[in-house]
């Protein structure tokens, strides 16, 4: 999960996220009534293999909503095949970005797993990047500046039909790995089909990057994965939920319930009162990150439930106890080196969560560089991860020995 820290809350409440619009260039096709642009409507028949490309189109990448600061790169919006938590084939969208500068040798490719965007279709990074409203634009640009190709997944249900399965470990990890396959199979990018790759993410993206690294040996063994950058990962959802509910970021706890409920076919509304149903529907259908923080600060789940008890209590009982346990990271060891970054002053995802994940991976034989910092607040620590990631990834792609703090 990606959240704004308390020092930035006042600023966040003053902002209103711009609802991104997409000008799809694909030919118009008859379809049922929907506000979703044609590009995001999956075909009736999906291709045969995970990572297979369904469609692509030219796009753009701006760092500002006025569109005066373009990022120089070849930008393609894509739709590709992946699988959901249960292994069902689905279509997801994303963005493939290739630097315009030449690169000696095979160009490395990094899968950027985005942090919390929201649940509404308009929040998809592939819609926000061309509108200049993607708040993780600078970390993406930093990777492009290193000469790396970058692919940014939208995850399941973000842009495409259905609810975004927010915080669902398997679905997020698979979407990240299949985005690498899709980017390698996209003609005209100059990235080789069997070239070196890595995964990168912070917060929700850190969890997705971690999940991808854990799943890679069995789900995508053919990828030449060189390493994983994992920033502030929500590795233990019990601990994260307890920290969020009733805080300035309480809306994101509600995001998690909607996302996990969709992934595991649980009717979240059955636990809610009228107000809770209204808030949950609004967060699911309308509010991106900044909008949610502005509209629902200090959201406490006990005011949303039919029985007046906080939803964190539900996490301790079936079916939620099993669902939360299924998202736990650290039960599987990545087969590649990991840079694990976390601030001791993280006010969203407790530092002990990232620290424990590092210990768990070390015990499983993974080479981990655990890199704590003291940056104040979750959002500000994003830059610390980004700045350290660039040289670390360069060393992995160069074949240098990875450092370890295990």
Describe this structure in words.
Helix 12 (351-363) links the parallel strand 8 (338-343) and strand 9. By secondary structure, the chain is α/β, with parallel strands linked by helices. The protein has 13 helices and nine strands. It folds into two domains: 6-233 and 335-397, Rossmann fold (3-Layer(aba) Sandwich), CATH 3.40.50; 237-324, 434 Repressor (Amino-terminal Domain) (Orthogonal Bundle), CATH 1.10.260.130. Residues 1-34 have low confidence and may be disordered. The chain has a nine-stranded mixed sheet, with helices on both faces. Helix 4 packs across helix 5 (204-219). It has helices at residues 9-14, 125-128, 137-145, 169-185, 204-219, 237-244, 250-264, 274-285, 289-295, 311-314, 320-326, 351-363, 381-397; strands at residues 53-58, 73-83, 89-99, 109-113, 149-153, 196-202, 224-231, 338-343, 368-373. It starts with 8 loop residues before the first helix and ends in a 9-residue tail after the last helix.
Topology (SSEs and partners):
Blueprint: H1 9-14, E1 53-58, E2 73-83, E3 89-99, E4 109-113, H2 125-128, H3 137-145, E5 149-153, H4 169-185, E6 196-202, H5 204-219, E7 224-231, H6 237-244, H7 250-264, H8 274-285, H9 289-295, H10 311-314, H11 320-326, E8 338-343, H12 351-363, E9 368-373, H13 381-397
Parallel strand pairs: 4-5, 4-6, 6-7, 7-8, 8-9
Antiparallel strand pairs: 1-2, 2-3, 3-5
């Amino acid at each position: 999960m990606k959240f704004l820290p308390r020092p930035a809350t006042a600023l966040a409440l003053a902002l209103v996220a711009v609802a991104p619009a997409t000008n799809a260039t694909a030919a118009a096709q008859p379809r049922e009534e929907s506000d979703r642009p044609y590009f995001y409507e999956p075909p009736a028949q999906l291709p045969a293999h995970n990572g297979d490309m369904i469609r692509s189109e030219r796009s753009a990448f701006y760092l500002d909503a006025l569109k005066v600061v373009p990022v120089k790169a070849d930008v393609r919006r894509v739709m590709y095949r992946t699988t959901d938590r249960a292994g069902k084939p689905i279509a997801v969208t994303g963005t493939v970005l290739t630097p315009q500068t030449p690169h000696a040798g095979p160009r490395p490719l990094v899968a950027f797993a985005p942090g919390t965007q929201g649940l509404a279709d308009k929040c998809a990074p592939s819609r926000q990047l061309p509108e200049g409203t993607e708040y993780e634009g600078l970390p993406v640009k930093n990777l492009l500046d290193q000469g790396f190709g970058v692919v940014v997944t939208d995850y399941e249900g973000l842009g495409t039909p259905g609810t975004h399965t927010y915080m669902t470990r398997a679905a997020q990890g698979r979407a990240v790995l299949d985005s690498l396959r899709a980017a390698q199979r996209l003609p005209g990018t100059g990235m080789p089909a069997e070239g070196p790759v890595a995964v990168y993410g912070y917060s929700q993206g850190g969890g997705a990057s971690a999940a991808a690294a854990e799943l890679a040996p069995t789900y995508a063994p053919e990828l030449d994965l060189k390493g994983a950058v994992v920033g502030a990962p929500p590795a233990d959802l019990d601990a994260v939920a307890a920290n969020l509910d009733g805080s300035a970021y309480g809306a994101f706890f509600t995001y998690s319930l909607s996302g996990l409920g969709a992934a595991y076919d649980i009717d979240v509304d059955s636990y809610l009162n009228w107000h809770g149903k209204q808030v949950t529907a609004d967060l699911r259908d309308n509010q991106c990150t900044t909008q949610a923080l502005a509209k629902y600060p200090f959201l406490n789940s006990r005011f949303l439930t039919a029985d007046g008890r906080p939803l964190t209590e539900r996490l301790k009982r079936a079916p939620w106890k099993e669902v939360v346990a299924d998202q736990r990271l650290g039960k599987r060891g990545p087969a590649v080196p990991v840079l694990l970054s976390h601030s001791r002053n993280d006010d969203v995802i407790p530092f002990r969560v990232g620290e424990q994940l590092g210990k768990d991976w070390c015990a499983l034989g993974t080479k981990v560089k655990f890199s704590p910092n003291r940056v104040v607040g979750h959002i500000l620590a994003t830059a610390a991860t980004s700045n350290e990631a660039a040289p670390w990834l360069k060393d992995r792609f160069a074949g240098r020995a990875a450092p370890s703090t295990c």
